[in-house]
Design brief:
By secondary structure, this protein is of the alpha/beta class. The protein has 11 helices and 18 strands. The protein is elongated and about 75 Å long.
């Protein structure tokens, strides 16, 4: 059962921007006073901005939001209203979009390795496009060959990406035609190709290389008398700025647009952005729950940490911009630690801060992707409550506390 929003809300007035979600210090303090801490504040207006920016940078490409980095009902409904498509990988994600009234024709299922139950659940909902990257996976679709269509995922290794997804998934480009031939023998329809150059890609050249290779594979398939390939999924991985700057998205996509223009005109192009849409859309707010001076440095213990909203530092190789609301005073080399009894639970072991007191607030920015989604309740420290603002385009910054995480696995408020 998916969550219903709590019947608690707080209207906050527009004011001078403090951080990526445009909340002021006063507004952040008001949220904590009302809802407690830790909090994850999700701004749907930022979701809209990121979606529109990428849509403008890749005209003619159908953007399928990848739910994995921020699988929240408010984000899904916001993007639904923007006309987005959706990239699903699990039965839980199927249930989430179903609850938000997403038409199955606007969804694809892209996990290259699936259980039979995953396939059945997606088909039962009405999703018919799946991804496979090896001969054994193709065989799973023989019993569903009248209902399912396949995109063959091609591997293009990208060592410069923060996360090289082709290390785990994808077939060698030279093996694609053989897989299409095998699918034809099995009676399984191959609809097109897909690739993913890796998460937080820094160079569009890898996309260009992959598009050109897939263009050649499509031409070779025709020459070999194989069925026409009508879809190219260019994946995600579009970069966002954490602490280091990245190329603006329109400039980043310019060579990708040029490569896509050389595809046959009948080919539908789709993409699977996740981080680019979700990362700038949330801040994490935590409180100092204790302090101690150790080896000449102040250690500040927060009520959120690596097992909570900052889990992406371990699982996603991210380093989030962090600031404190206390201003003024001499800066000291300090340590920000999470609340658990595990010594690895340290957010930053060398950060310059004014001296803080118990109750002071710490804000992490760019924390929409792979944070709350991978948070745990380890040591019985409950994960952050989710507060949603600007859930509709005319919401005027009204915020709502979400009682539970998507899929019912989060904490009750």
């Amino acid at each position: 059962m998916l969550p219903r929003a709590a019947k608690q809300s707080l209207a906050v007035s527009p004011a001078h921007s403090f951080d990526s979600t445009t909340l002021t210090e006063t507004e952040i303090r008001a949220l904590v006073a009302r809802f407690g801490s830790p909090l994850l504040v999700v701004d749907c207006e930022q979701v809209r901005r990121q979606y529109r920016a990428l849509k403008a940078a890749l005209p003619g490409v159908d953007l399928h939001y990848a739910l994995k980095p921020l699988p929240h009902a408010a984000v899904v409904s916001c993007l639904r209203d923007e006309g987005a498509y959706f990239d699903l990988a699990t039965t839980g994600e199927v249930e989430l979009v179903k609850q938000q009234g997403i038409a199955p024709s606007r969804c694809i299922h892209t996990h290259p390795i699936k259980r039979d139950s995953d396939i059945r659940d997606a088909l039962r909902y009405g999703v018919t496009t799946f991804v496979a990257d090896n001969p054994d996976e193709l065989k799973k679709f023989v019993r569903y060959r009248k209902r399912a269509e396949i995109l063959i995922r091609v591997s293009f290794r990208s060592p410069n990406a923060v996360v090289d997804l082709s290390k785990k998934f994808g077939c060698d480009p030279g093996a694609v035609l053989g897989m299409i031939e095998q699918a034809r023998r099995l009676g399984v329809r191959v609809k097109g190709l897909s690739f993913h150059v890796g998460s937080q890609a820094t160079d569009p050249a890898k996309y260009v290389e992959a598009v050109q290779a897939c263009t050649n594979i499509m031409a070779e398939a025709v020459l070999a008398g194989l069925p026409s390939l009508d879809v190219l999924d260019i994946g995600g991985g579009f970069p966002v700025a954490y602490n280091d700057s990245v190329t603006p998205i329109d400039e980043f996509c310019r060579p990708i647009r040029a490569a896509l223009a050389k595809l046959p005109p009948h080919v539908r192009v789709i993409a699977e952005p996740g981080r680019f849409i979700a990362a700038p859309a949330a801040i994490a707010v935590s409180s100092v729950m204790g302090k101690a001076k150790r080896d000449g440095r102040w250690w500040y213990y927060l009520d959120d940490g690596l097992y909570g909203s900052y889990s992406g530092q371990m699982f996603d190789h991210a380093k989030y911009p962090v600031s404190v609301l206390r201003q003024g005073g001499e800066l000291h080399e300090s340590v920000l630690a999470g609340p658990t009894c595990d010594s690895i639970d340290v957010i930053d072991d060398s950060i310059m801060l004014p001296e803080l007191e118990v109750g002071d607030l710490v804000v992490g920015r760019m924390m929409g992707a792979y944070t709350w989604a991978s948070a745990t309740d380890f040591n019985f420290f409950k994960r952050a409550r989710v507060v949603v603002m600007n859930e509709t385009a005319d919401a005027r910054r009204v915020v709502r506390l979400q009682r539970k995480a998507a899929g019912g696995r989060g904490r009750a408020a």
